[in-house]
Amino acid sequence: MALLVDNVKSKLILAGVGLTLALTPMMAQAKGGHGPRVTFEELDADGNGSVTEAEMQAHRAAGFASTDTNGDGALSRDELEAKMKSGKEDRMIRRLDKMMERMDTDGNGTLSQEEMADAGGKRKGKGFSRMDKDGNGEISKAEFEQMGKKHRGGKHKK
């Protein structure tokens, strides 16, 4: 009986992972998040302007198959980790491409100190003054630590 329960638990966990792999891109896109993204066109396999449950299942199955690199029909921790790292790398590359496009004003494929300095836009030169809360021209340890608290966890509070 315990073996049957363990087998059922394993199948439920794998089903949950598969569903997560399928739904995460859509939820991230709907929420404006930074997770993996899937376009409507990718889901609409037959190009008829709507997505069926079968198309969703096919997309999920393809995602599962691409993650199951050894083809054993199960996702190991290593396979899931590799998939997650790949997604992070893809996002990093997209951010880097956007940064280069925005900042490389002379289009030579490199960023000079001048281009980096000019990148501040409307916030240019205000970093110090934002940290110097009392406006005395110096940043105290308390002011420095307060700015660090605002940036913890990737969130910036104004």
TrEMBL record:
Every EF-hand domain range: 55-90, 91-126, 128-154
UniProt cross-references to InterPro entries, sorted A to Z: EF-hand-dom_pair, EF_Hand_1_Ca_BS, EF_hand_dom
Stored SMART domains: EFh
Bias kind Basic residues: ranges: 149-158
Composition bias, Basic and acidic residues: 75-105, 129-148
Keyword Signal: yes
Cleavable signal peptide: 1-30
GO molecular function ontology, one term from the record: calcium ion binding
Region described as Disordered: spans on this chain: 55-158
Pfam families: EF-hand_5, EF-hand_7
Keywords linked to the UniProt accession: Signal
Signal listed as a keyword: yes
Protein name: Ca2+-binding protein, EF-hand superfamily
